[in-house]
Amino acid sequence: VQLQASGGGLVQAGGSLRLSCAVSGRTFSMYRMGWFRQGPGKEREFVVAILWSGGRTYYADSVKGRFTISRDNAKNTVSLQMNSLKPEDTAVYYCAASPSYNPNYIDQQGYDYWGQGTQVTVSS
After folding, report:
1. Residue 54 — very low, low, confident or very high, per pLDDT cuts 50/70/90?
2. How far, CA to CA in Å, does 39 sit from each of 2, 55, 81, 94, 100?
């Protein structure tokens, strides 16, 4: 199983970016997909997650109302629309996948597969 993240870049505060994560090597859907981020000098932290079946979502408080996660079953991809970006959103963003039931959506241990990370830089 491989996860390929894309869509990062440089944007001014208040701007928007859209990240995508493509899943390959698996013929059936994952249980849950998530995005984590790691800012400069910080630990990796949970951002958002979505259950592949049913689409239930979970957001970190810091991104609620600004970020939206969605999935495309046909393309086996998950997208993260990021609006009203702030300098504190600057980080490397990682997509992650849990192939089977695991209630721990907020910790890294709840995911078995990880993408390579994509840099998001928000200038003030």
Report:
1. confident
2. 23, 27, 18, 11, 28
